[in-house]
Amino acid sequence: MKENRELGLKLTLEAEDRKLTGEITVDAGGRTRYGIAEKYNPDLWKNGPPSLEDAKRAYINRYWIEGGCDSLPYPMDIAMFDCCVNPGLGAARTILSHNTDLSGFMRARMRWYCRNVIDRPHLLKNLPGWILRCLNLWRDLDTK
Fold first, then answer.
1. How many separate helices (H) and strands (E) can be counted in the chain?
2. How far is 138 from 105, CA to CA, in rounded Å?
3. Which of 75, 88, 99, 139 is the most buried (most CB within 10 A)?
4. How far is it, in rounded angstroms, from Cα 130 to Cα 15?
5. Domain extent listing, the chain
6. H-run or E-run covering 135
7. Entry pTM
8. Exposed / middle / buried, residue 49 (Cβ in 10 Å: 0-12, 13-18, 19+)
9. Model confidence over 60-86: pLDDT tens digits?
10. Residue 3's closest CA among 75, 61, 51?
11. What is the residue-averaged pLDDT of the chain?
């Protein structure tokens, strides 16, 4: 729901850059700042690395709104939002279409990551982080 956007943004930004340092890292998406990868968001990098405000706007417009999170009840809105960010809108929509409760959704998301690694073994190095991200979010949403 719309009133949960700020909490969703906070939790997802913490998963992407725990201390919001703005440090530029390099991963499969190329240069990345606040979780905004240059490969997937070249427009946000055209004048240099995105600012924190640029990242927040992009997250809301490209993932929260595009993912239909305003139409979902808490905590599914935030779980869906984080899933839209990682592993992406397509995967998130597929996972949501079969799992409308938090427990089912989070388990299905972790299975999605495991199947993805089976298909792309070079991604194995990312699996622990992805699973930990899911478990942390699940814990945070289940206790609020």
1. 7, 3
2. 10
3. 75
4. 10
5. 2-142
6. helix 127-142
7. 0.94
8. middle
9. 999 999 999 999 999 999 999 999 999
10. 75
11. 95
- The span from the CA of 83 to the CA of 12, in Å, is 9
Task: Give the C-alpha separation, 126 to 59, whole Å.
Answer: 21
Torsion of CA 97, 100, 104, 109, to 10 degrees: 50
HSE-up of 119 (CA within 13 Å, CB side)?
A: 6
Handedness of CA 77, 84, 134, 103 (dihedral sign): positive
Q: Encode pLDDT of 24-61 as tens digits.
A: 999 888 999 999 999 999 999 999 999 999 999 999 99
Is-cis flag, bond preceding 50, omega within 30? no
In the block, which residue shows the tokens 């890292």?
25
- Residue 1: per-residue pLDDT: 61
Does residue 136 contact residue 16 with C-beta atoms inside 8 Å? no
Residue the block writes with tokens 């530029």: 24
CA distance 115 to 113: 6
Give the Cβ contact number of residue 31 at 10 Å: 14
| Token pair in block for residue 2 | 């719309």
CA 109 – CA 24 distance, rounded (Å): 27
36-37/30-33 β-pairing: antiparallel
